[in-house]
Amino acid sequence: MTEIEGKTALITGGSKGIGFGIAEAMIKSGMNVAITSRSQDAADEAAKRLQGIGNSEVLAIEADVRNIDSQKDAVAKILQKWGKLDVVIANAGLGHFGSIEELTSEQWQETIGTNLTGVFNTVKATIDPLKISKGYIITISSLAGTNFFAGGSAYNASKFGLTGFTQAIMLDLRKYGIRVSTIMPGSVSTHFNNHEPGEQDAWKIQIEDIGEMVVDLLRINPRTLPSKIEVRPTTPPSH
């Protein structure tokens, strides 16, 4: 089993939802974590909550994955603080849903720009330090990356693209000892798409479940790579 205590991670979109759940699991495992958000206030608030969990260090960074210079600046801050980067969780994402007749150009651009180009920017900004650490990249895709549905043209396109992108860079980067995986969750209890989590979400995947999964992946012997992982609720409600 690989020891992860003391390793350093970057989590994009780490101030809430799945990203926060992953950060929480990493902190409990002794890792140092940098979380990014487009809002410095949101990142700071999440960092305060995380710092109360364990003795690891948390760095809150305002950054927009759609801007590669913003991602490079975030990486520079991480290297300045810790001198290394071991793990990258490309998690930041959003969704606009509706018929192609209703979907606007702005909604399309924001979805593709965040969910797909944003991951490209994150990976490009982190490759060099990950080569040194023989690190790990994990992208958060979705079951919508293999299953299409009405009203999902932008979201499906972004997640189908992300799934393919991740599998391709896995082949590009493994010669450097960099491992790459994608996690593809189904229904997760988060505020995604303006949802309000509550007791009605008890059947859904919880953010701590994804966090536990990520930590387990990081601990697997480096000779073995689960490259694509589909995750779904065990017992969804019947309709």
Domain unit count? 1
Q: Rg, please?
A: 17 Å
- The helix-strand sequence is EHEHEHEHEHEHE
**What value does the average pLDDT take?**
93
In CATH, what is the homologous superfamily?
NAD(P)-binding Rossmann-like Domain
Q: How far do the termini sit from each other? A: 42 Å
Strand order of the largest sheet: 3-2-1-4-5-6-7
Q: What composes the largest sheet?
A: 7 strands, parallel
Instruction: Using the coordinates above, name the CATH class.
Output: Alpha Beta
Question: What descriptive keywords fit this protein?
Answer:
239 residues, alpha/beta, Rossmann fold, 43% helix
Describe the structure.
Belongs to the short-chain dehydrogenases/reductases (SDR) family. Residues 7-192 form the Ketoreductase domain. It comes from Fulvivirga marina. This protein has helices at residues 17-28, 40-51, 68-82, 105-133, 153-173, 207-219; strands spanning 8-11, 32-37, 58-62, 87-90, 136-140, 179-185, 228-231. The model has no long low-confidence stretch (mean pLDDT 93). It is built from 6 helices and 7 strands; from the N terminus they run βαβαβαβαβαβαβ. The protein has a single domain (8-231), classed as Rossmann fold (3-Layer(aba) Sandwich), CATH 3.40.50. The termini are far apart. The protein has a 7-stranded parallel β-sheet, sandwiched between helices. Helix 1 (17-28) packs across helix 6 (207-219), helix 3 (68-82) packs parallel to helix 4 and helix 4 runs parallel beside helix 5.
